[in-house]
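Box S1 | Example of a co-folding query
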Amino acid sequence: MKINRNFDNLVPNYLFAEIAKRVNDYQTAHPEKDVIRLGIGDVTLPLAPVVVEAMKQGAEELAHKETFKGYPDYEGYAFVREAVASYYHSFGVEVSPDEILISDGAKSDCGNIGDIFGTDNVVLVTDPVYPVYVDSNLMAGRKIVYAECTKENGFTAMPDESVHADIIYLCSPNNPTGAAYTAEQLQQWVDYAIRHDAVILYDSAYEAFITEEVPRSIFAIEGARQCAIEFCSLSKTAGFTGTRCGYTVIPKELERDGHNLYQTWYRRQATKFNGVSYPVQCAAAAVFSKEGQEQIKVNLAYYQENARIIASALDELGIYYTGGKNSPYIWLECPNGMKSWEFFDMLLQEANVVGTPGAGFGKNGEGFFRLTSFGDRDKTIEAVARIKKLLAK
Ligand code: PLP
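Box S1 (continued) | Returned holo structure for pyridoxal-5'-phosphate
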């Protein structure tokens, strides 16, 4: 037998293992040091009370014959899809509940969507990039082209008419750079996609962090219904990283190569996915209730304030960065032309602060560094004070 040889093309991703090793080695050599982690990509605040209550009620229904439920619908219960559609409506974007599919998260959907596309399509990703887009396409054997995100374009790469792509991954607000596309910029991508008969795979996992006038959905852009699929997640929005729930939106009219993409994705999900558990779907619907929205905003505001604290320190230090305003991520230029890992080691050893070297997200990440706002407030304040002391020297 043979295994899928495309796996040989994956670049081993040692990023988080290497970070853990360096931190561990340092902490072993200096057990008295209080190392603060500002590299964490996971949320730390608990689920909102109304969400937990809904989950408990869902579990309670499963405990009684009259209300027991077995396999859920492949596309998710109507009450959750209706809640998601009304959420979109709240920021002025109309999508039908029939265009929404509930899933166990955006990572699975972003990674699995490739099942519906031919392997001879050219895939465009931005560099730096959320690794799932690259790795899932390498596994399938697709050719990947990169759109360069640099300081010059504010880490928002724009389409190049001379480069053809069939599948385009966009993530806004972006992981790792925190940069968010404006409506005008997204319009250019949509126009490009339509001209090239391409499909945009739009990851809006961080839309809940938006504070400025930038789109929360690709479907706020004219023409997007003819060329885009959107993935979103409750992971960062409502602390569902361990609970697992997300949703994908595919306009009913979206077609390519004589096939309806909603139907094709539905068929794929019906074959390989048996849905999200009922208590979790109850919890997800509660996120979109009036009370749920109020409660999750408290947690989001906490992270947003952490981001503001980090960003304002960088402002004071005169360090270039993107993100922090519409995103939990702050992507900064390493001072004095340092490389990402050089800066990582300096920050670890001299300020006892851990971040994520930008070089781990692609070649354009070299010389950059990611800090996150998912940590504890007091620790964030302390870490920022240490960074200021170190870099103001
Ligand atoms: N998309 C992006 C850009 C992310 O950064 C993440 C998580 O870090 C995900 C998707 C994954 O989301 P989920 O937890 O819903 O799988």
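The two ends are 61 Å apart (CA to CA). The CA atoms of residues 26 and 352 lie 9 Å apart.
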